[in-house]
Give the backbone structure.
Amino acid sequence: MTPRQLEAFVAVARVLSFARASESLYMSQPALSLAIRNLEEELGGPLFSRTTRHVRLTPEGSALLPLAVQLLADFSNVKERLSQRFKLQKGHLTIAAMPSFCASVFPPILAVYRKNYPGIDVSIHDVLNENVIGMVQEGRVELGICFEPIGERGLFFEPLFEDRFVAIVSRDSRLASKNAISWNQLLHQEFITLQRPSSLRRLLEKLVSEAGIEFQVAFDCHQLATVVRMVAAGLGVSAVPSMLRDQLELSGVHSLKLNAPMVSSSVGIITRRDHQLSIAASAMQSEILALTKA
Amino acid sequence: MTPRQLEAFVAVARVLSFARASESLYMSQPALSLAIRNLEEELGGPLFSRTTRHVRLTPEGSALLPLAVQLLADFSNVKERLSQRFKLQKGHLTIAAMPSFCASVFPPILAVYRKNYPGIDVSIHDVLNENVIGMVQEGRVELGICFEPIGERGLFFEPLFEDRFVAIVSRDSRLASKNAISWNQLLHQEFITLQRPSSLRRLLEKLVSEAGIEFQVAFDCHQLATVVRMVAAGLGVSAVPSMLRDQLELSGVHSLKLNAPMVSSSVGIITRRDHQLSIAASAMQSEILALTKA
DNA sequence: CACACTTACGATATTCGTAAGGATT
DNA sequence: AATCCTTACGAATATCGTAAGTGTG
């Protein structure tokens, strides 16, 4: 019992004529006769009563008709759904990214992606850097955007760009006129940054200690936005990822390049090494690569 | 996209191995490869990611799997249902029969039918003779059992037996010792029968008037059972269809043959002339014929 | 006699199985 | 080296189309 046979059956049942049905099926009338005959033999009895002059449904044929229509519709739906998925007309994508990325370079990328693939729904998990890695490892998301993980097995890291720390100071500060500043100069100011659980704080401490520079934290809090507001209010200075630079200028602080030692970290896309990406995810990966490398 | 291809897909997805799946599908492994390949090409993308050493479902393949399983189950169900219908293992039959038939010869026939085809549910409409004809004409039932209709177009009448009227008298009656009686003798007694809307009454009046015999009704009521009880109580006599004879003896009345003029009517099965019977119905027809002609 | 479905038969397309090839553990 | 999937090619099968047959109105 093939879909083709069911189509033939439905076509004949609709018009009650083998000849007319054969036209709509794009096949010869004898071929249609055989197809119906085979179906009848497989099911075990006649579906039509033919009197060479009239074609009528048997009671069993009447019983089959609605079932066949439903079956064909289901078949067609599944096929269409899968095809759409492959053609990226439908689908779902899960991605985790660290907040700094979500707040800066990600939105315009998402806009382009959504324009190119309007049928793909995207769930974005803006979570801490460590959680990004965890969610990818657990398979809860297909893609993750975070700093390069160290020593994590089973993950593949595709680098996007180097994220350097930039200094931020109040516009009223005497440093605001400068374009660049050294770590030593920066850390002699009142320093404001995030609290310990954050990866930014940990990264900052690790990089700074490796460079042999001492620093003291005057204020720390949870939200990066708060840090920025405090800097803008003249309470102190901070160092934040460079990818936030565009945002910073709008927030009323001034950003400065930090001179050597260059403290930077690689931002990239992580995926599970042993899992193939959905087409929706690999399209997103390509999109991110294209728009950040440029 | 054929059911065979879906079966192949599901089999591979279940065991994640082309080689093992090919065994359970009773086909060679390369043939399975091709089948999957064709399915993938039709749907527009890969369903499995093959690394010559591991076979894994792609996200799209994972999406297809439950759909394919459901589709195959539906397919199988429809096929099984139709086959059962043809094999008379499942089905439904609607039949209308006049009450006298239902009360006498029909139950043992139904018992045999049910024994032979336990999967067929039977809806019996025990309605007045005229309603039997109407229900068949309207297509509400497939079979009808009634007196031979006169002048009804579009119906086919298959005669079963001649139903003669028999006289019934009280066991205490002086007529109870006789085996036969004439209409004249019977109608000189207090006569009890059904009221006018009933076909029995109409038939009785018509036949008797054609024979030129006058008769007077002392009592009439709606239920034949009541008539019988009244006769048994010695209130009078009656004439009822001969097919009820077996029942009558149990009801405490005595039945006698009625001599000429022989008043009889043909009982048979009516069907719509332009409609084919379901297998369940034609089986019932054969059963009735076999068990009443004998 | 004309129309509509069935049967018969040759051609085509699809599917299947065997054999060889390639890649990974 | 062994295992597993793919590719290649010939064979079997199924399906289709043309032509002839059959029964009905």
